[in-house]
Amino acid sequence: MKRIEDLVVQPPQSATWRVHLDRSMWVGGVRGLMLQALHPVAMRGVWQNSSFQQDPFGRLRRTADFVGRVTFGSPEEAAEIGRRVRAIHRALRVRDPDTGRTHRVDDPELLLWVHCAEVSSYLEVARRGGLGLSERQADRYLAEQRRSAARVGLHPDDVPGTCAEMEAYLKRARPALRVTPEAAAAVRFLLWPRLPRELRLLTAGKPLYFPFGALCYYTLPDWARRMYGVLPEVPQAAVTAALKAFRLALNSLPEPVHDRAFQPATRAMLQASRERLGAAGYDVTKGLKGLTDPRRWPAA
């Protein structure tokens, strides 16, 4: 029998598996983009080198593909996407109009901010939404995410690996953050996104996306919402209740239905992961999410 490490990058018993299979990830992903946008150089890097203005939802799906491959993909798939991302970043530059300086997209400072804003958002939203993770498990999640950070070119030792380290990093980063015109536009796009062509059939339901975007916005830290000032403040208890209801509703969807939101390549990767695990004796009748239950693992 193959070792689990040969089948998927992160095993089912990992904290990463539990967080990344939780459907609150959609809220965490958009929250992460909103938080990332507060770093002027990082946001301008996105603005100058991607199609974010036309398709912000597409960036979220590409991020979901990366996260999926470095979690549920094979070691070979994770290594390949890491090489691809590093090569793309290595070739790109960002011009800062405020200083006239040109920055590398793969500058470790920028990569670290993007990583921390993203994974802290996943963790914070999942726990607030009701995913039962202890402090020790939350620390383990951040420690496991150092492997993902290494895929984009960061040294694992430079990446926060506990909740206390993450909190300290975000506190240190705050003086450099501000709302640029690009950041303000990014939040507007994320509150009212432009759908990619393959999802245009959902356009009739677009008025429902504003409440979703607002939910993502309201889960931002207090200091980030004060910086943006885009929406009036509401009681945070109501935000938590709405997040729990959203999470409960999405977690009730069958895995094949939920997976339609992903890119075709992401869906194919997830299906290949199910097949590998099934062939190794794991009970995948309830999909990858079902494997959070150790009773579905093969007998030792």
Plain-language structure description:
It is a single chain. The protein is 59% helix and 2% strand. The chain has a two-stranded antiparallel ribbon. Helix 3 packs antiparallel against helix 7 and helix 5 packs parallel to helix 15. The longest helix is centred in the middle third of the chain and has 22 residues. The termini are close together. About 2% of the residues have low confidence. It comes from Actinomadura luzonensis. This is DUF2236 domain-containing protein. InterPro entries: MPAB/Lcp_cat_dom. Pfam families: MPAB_Lcp_cat.
Task: Measure the end-to-end span.
Answer: 11 Å
Global outline: globular
Q: What is the H-and-E element order? A: HHHHHHEEHHHHHHHHH
Strand content: under 5%
**Tally of DSSP β-strands:** 2
Average pLDDT level: 92
Q: Residue share in helices? A: 55-70%
> How would you characterize the largest beta sheet?
2 strands, antiparallel
Uncertain segments are: 201-205
**Tally of discrete structural domains:** 1
Helix/strand class: mainly alpha
* Integer-rounded radius of gyration: 19 Å
How many separate helices?
A: 15
Tell me the strand order in the biggest sheet. 1-2
